[in-house]
Input
Amino acid sequence: MRDDIDRGRSEVLTTLDPEQMDPGYWHRFHRWVLNSAGAELVRRRRRADASVSDVMFSWWRTLVPTAVVVAILAGFFLLRDGTRPQQPVAYMSVDELILDGIEVPVMPAFETADSDGGIVVVNEAY
Amino acid sequence: MAKLGELSDSELVGRARTGDEGAFGALVERYMRSAYAVALAVTGRHEDAQDAAQEALLVVLQRLDECRSPEKFAGWLMTIVRNRARNLVRREVLRDTDQVPVSASSATPTPERDMETVELRQGLADALGGLPEIQREIVLLHDLEGWKHGEIADRLELPSGTVRSHLHFARKALRGALAALQPTEKDEVVR
Output
């Protein structure tokens, strides 16, 4: 009895399969899903078909206009700087260039008392 | 070259990601019945199970790049189906249609058999309705779709012992409910 019911259970469960009462149901189900998925599949194919040249071309389309704009801006600033009055050039001798920035040694200051009791500061440069 | 139907889920997912219609079609063919069974276990109604299963299969395609473990595609798909079906139930958009497909009346050979099947389906639906959702899902996947214990455990990410236990209790409950549906000898004589 129990085995019969177990066997019957599987058979009964098959009545839940829509195909049992509606032949061709799964075929239509499958077709409906694929038809509905068409746009997404096309989008994926296009994305996958993008070749290296396509990628490079997409870069080129962005890069070239940017480079042109940058070149125009650079030219503009260069030309603008060229029209300004030139500052006078200060010429320096070699000695000045060599000695420029070098501190001259200074003798230490000596403090001595003069005959009047005042202080005399001696500071002599070499 | 291997037929699409012989390829693994992983390989089919890889191809479907690039828009291969055949590969996606093979995945749909492989899992549409299981998706329907899982959705039916949640909603308990044919129309809603159909909607949830179809929607889930389309969502899966759109989100295919999110499937990080293509070898576990089936489990991932069933999770999406379950969530879609639960959303349908939660939003209370269950349609007021009969649980039997509309086209059913013209598909059966005789009105007598049609009525018998409808009664059987109704009784079975009631019996299944008395089971917890997870038990409905497991018994449908096992007894209707023919999934093995290991496959159910792996795809639903459940311990094998839990699957067996759920199946045992589900069958026990169904056995009792179906015993009442079995035609007795007296009924057969009357017919």
